[in-house]
UniProtKB/TrEMBL annotation:
This is L-fuconate dehydratase. Its cofactor is Mg(2+). CDD domains: rTSbeta_L-fuconate_dehydratase (cd03324). Residues 203-299 form the Mandelate racemase/muconate lactonizing enzyme C-terminal domain. Transmembrane segments: none annotated.
């Protein structure tokens, strides 16, 4: 099919689950048994280049089938779209998906349906970047401020950020871009590691992994907290002893506490000099976060991985609720909404330290931070991307970490593509792994 006439011909979906709960990888105070999963999709076209767009939502096991069903519900909006037009203006599809008047009832702009929109929109960006022959971070950094702003939905934002203000931020952000790109390609983008700190790990394993993080060049690690205060005190002491006084130690409660409890618990850990407390309470509690921030200062407050959309981020910033904004590549409405969130953070001068880990979240979010550095915030100071060292082997273009830094990806696309053999093996329930596992444990699993 001639390039100009090519259309989207298929949206193929897959329920992919990894049995990570067996080793307590990913365990925290609210999620004791996560099986890291991806509701995964592939956009196929009839173009001669045979390029595909890959995207996914991250979930943790049961419910991944629900997430896949939500992606399937969007299929009629995608099939038949002209590829060139879609890739030249991903916002055209974003607006249709967010605006579906019947599906919108299930949100609006939150939850399972919104995550499905994010997966589809991100797949479009993957396809657009592949067609442009650029990694996504470069496609975004090369774009004009006007075009980037055309990709943002300013509905519900203009009391905090107008399109004109966004253009001004992006114009200012471009100054010195070439120099920063050279630095990015040479040094990479700073990361921090959560690998030592899962709640289910023994103190011995925590200490060993903290030492390993130091040896690998990380300058920040993170510990899960919030299940038992005596345990947290013991684990924070072990971690601080392992890394010494100069490494930043973040703590993460995964929404475990009420507001007053968050303040007392965090203060009880203050002697270990935590850098930030992450997700101290419900991600919807804008004013609660503001109270916690006042109560625990100078310890910083961070949240974002479960923040539903740009409107809640706007309020967190307006209310002075957070010191650190932790956007997630696959929670909100894809790249388009994350551009809005990056612009809001720049407007309020709050550093973005993305949530990652899970399945493929490191692969995706590195592109957004690198764009932010090159063409918007212009700084990596107090900015780090979360890193967790599992499941990267299932990706075609996995992240590369050197001396605690993310190397800038070079391959065209959004680094979203999983290996076909991984998709086949871990598809639930019929992939080789799960078919064998379910046969072995028949009748004993929920
Ligand atoms: Mg977290």
């Amino acid at each position: 099919m001639a390039a100009a006439a090519a259309r989207i011909t298929a949206v193929d979906t897959y329920d992919i689950r990894f049995p990570t709960s067996r080793e307590l990888d990913g365990s925290d105070a609210m999620n004791p048994d996560p099986d890291y999963s991806a509701a995964y999709l592939v956009l196929r076209t009839d173009a001669e280049d045979a390029l595909e767009g890959h995207g996914f939502s991250f979930t943790i096991g049961r419910g991944n089938d629900v997430q896949v069903a939500a992606i399937n519900a969007l299929r009629p909006h995608v099939i038949g779209r002209p590829v060139a037009e879609l890739c030249a203006d991903p916002a055209s599809l974003y607006r249709v998906l967010v605006g579906d008047s019947q599906l919108r009832w299930l949100g609006p702009e939150k939850g399972v349906m919104h995550m499905a929109i994010g997966a589809v929109v991100n797949a479009v960006w993957d396809l657009a970047a592949k067609r442009a022959g650029k990694p996504l971070w470069r496609l975004l950094a090369d774009a004009t401020p006007e075009w980037l702003v055309s990709q943002v939905d300013f509905r519900y934002l203009t009391d905090a950020l107008t399109p004109d203000q966004a253009i001004e931020l992006l114009q200012r952000g471009r100054s010195g871009l070439a120099e920063r790109e050279a630095r990015l390609l040479h040094q990479g983008y700073p990361g921090y590691t959560t690998s030592p700190g899962w709640l289910g790990y023994s103190d011995e394993k925590l200490t060993r992994l903290a030492h390993q993080a130091l040896a690998e060049g990380f300058t920040q690690i993170k510990l899960k907290v919030g299940a038992d205060l005596a345990d947290d005190i013991r684990r924070c002491r072990a971690a601080r002893n392992a890394v010494g006084p100069d490494i930043r130690l973040a703590i993460d409660a995964n929404q475990r506490w009420n507001v007053a409890e968050a303040i007392t618990w965090t203060k009880a850990l203050a002697e270990f000099d935590p850098y930030w407390i992450e997700e101290p309470t419900s991600p919807d509690d804008v004013l609660g976060h503001a109270a916690i921030r006042t109560g625990v200062a100078p310890i910083k407050v961070a949240t974002g991985e479960h923040v539903q959309n740009r409107i809640v981020f706007k309020q967190l910033l307006q209310a002075g609720s957070i010191d650190v904004l932790q956007l997630d590549a696959a929670r909100v409405g894809g790249v388009n909404e994350n551009l809005a969130i990056l612009l809001l953070a720049a407007r309020f001068g709050v550093p973005v330290c993305p949530h990652a880990g899970g399945v493929g979240l490191c692969e995706l979010v590195q592109h957004l931070s690198m764009f932010d550095y090159l063409a918007l915030s212009g700084s990596t100071e107090d900015r780090v991307i979360e890193y967790v060292d599992h499941l990267h082997e299932h990706f075609l273009d996995p992240v590369t970490i050197e001396r605690g830094h993310y190397r800038a990806p070079r391959a065209p696309g959004f680094s979203a593509q999983m290996l076909p053999e991984s998709i086949a093996r871990f598809s639930y329930p019929d992939g080789d792994f799960w078919a064998a596992d379910l046969a072995r444990t028949e009748g004993t699993r929920p």
